[in-house]
Amino acid sequence: MSAPLTPPPPPHERSARDTGRPPSDGPAAAPLQLSGSTGFAAYPGHDWRHDPDGPGMRTEVRQAAVTAVAGALCGALLGVLWWWLAPRVPLVGDVVGDNWVVYFKDSEGEQAVGVDGTFSLLALGFGAVSALVAFLVRRRGGVPLVVALAVGGLLGSLLAWRLGVWLGPSQDVVARARSAGQGVTFDAPLQLGAKGALLVWPFAALVVHLGLTGLFGPRDPDPFPPPGPYGPQSTAPKA
Questions:
Q1: Predicted confidence band at 180 (pLDDT cuts at 50, 70, 90)?
Q2: CA-to-CA distance for 9 and 30, rounded, in angstroms?
Q3: Which of 50, 104, 138, 223 is most buried as measured by Cβ atoms within 10 A of its Cβ?
Q4: Helix crossing, 57-85 with 111-137: angle to 10°?
Q5: How far apart are CA 154 and CA 183, in angstroms?
Q6: Euclidean distance between CA atoms 5 and 35, whole angstroms
Q7: What pTM was estimated for this model as a whole?
């Protein structure tokens, strides 16, 4: 008389030898939750709809407005420095017939180029410093902050240009030539010949801020972290 045969286990109850995993006596792994109707796994801290570290769009816009106004006001300092450091262009007045004629004392001089170069170098430094300060205050950056840096830099350059011209010598060179006398050297009005220098500040601010954000800015968490050896959220079996 032979012993009764043991029925085989159900298909869903595979042994550790078939699955290649050690047996688990602990609780079953928590099921993977889905976030709403998007179908994405809701990993802790990886929900794209809510960022606990973000200040909110209203706060970002307010900070961007402050950044733009601060950049524009700093243009006054740039204008004063430009007026103070820019080289002087010498002019000479002469009388031809009954009319006064004003011409450059040194026709081959590079003072006019130096005026534009001084403005460009100062604007480059202001752009780099403004980007550094904005990054230190607001490391997470954001589109409103980047736009504010560009707008503030452009407004600051415009203010610096007009302020420097206003602080410089008078624009009426004929009257100044008459006041100085025939053949007497006097300084030309402060002018910005290369208007493209007005874009140096905003361009430098954007480039420096982009570099700082790329090198030292916070990294966004990976919305799809690689699965572990026991599944995305499964835990190792207890010994």
A1: confident
A2: 25
A3: 138
A4: 150
A5: 40
A6: 48
A7: 0.67
